[in-house]
């Protein structure tokens, strides 16, 4: 709507900005490693089961790159799941305090 003021922009937390920087670094490393893997002609020797009678060396090369990327993805996901600790955004209230707050709100609603 014209004339409606825009809400102020939220500042991103430092942790979010750090995470984005790491993502960009890892993307760059991935690009370099992907280029190196694609230019190496003997990568299908790492996974010898990819070369079959039906496919030639180029098909085996492509399948080997695919299996290599799956291995790296599973390794990275496992490392992230083990080492990254999630912090809650808000502190947890005790159940007694939460119950009292809910009871107080319901009594307030009954009065009105």
From TrEMBL:
GO terms for molecular function: sucrose:proton symporter activity. It is a multi-pass membrane protein. It is found in: Membrane. Keywords: Membrane, Sugar transport, Symport, Transmembrane, Transmembrane helix, Transport. One of its GO terms (cellular component) is vacuole. Its main location: membrane. This is Uncharacterized protein. The lineage of its organism: Eukaryota, Viridiplantae, Streptophyta, Embryophyta, Tracheophyta.
């Amino acid at each position: 709507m014209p004339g409606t003021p825009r809400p102020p922009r939220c500042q991103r937390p430092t942790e979010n900005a750090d995470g984005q920087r790491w993502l960009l670094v890892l993307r760059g490393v991935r690009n370099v490693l992907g280029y190196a893997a694609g230019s190496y002609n003997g990568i299908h020797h790492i996974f010898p089961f990819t070369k079959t009678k039906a496919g030639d060396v180029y098909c085996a090369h492509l399948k080997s790159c695919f299996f290599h990327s799956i291995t790296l993805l599973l390794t990275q996901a496992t490392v992230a799941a083990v080492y990254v600790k999630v912090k809650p955004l808000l502190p947890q209230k005790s159940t007694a305090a939460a119950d009292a707050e809910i009871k107080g709100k319901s009594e307030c609603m009954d009065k009105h």
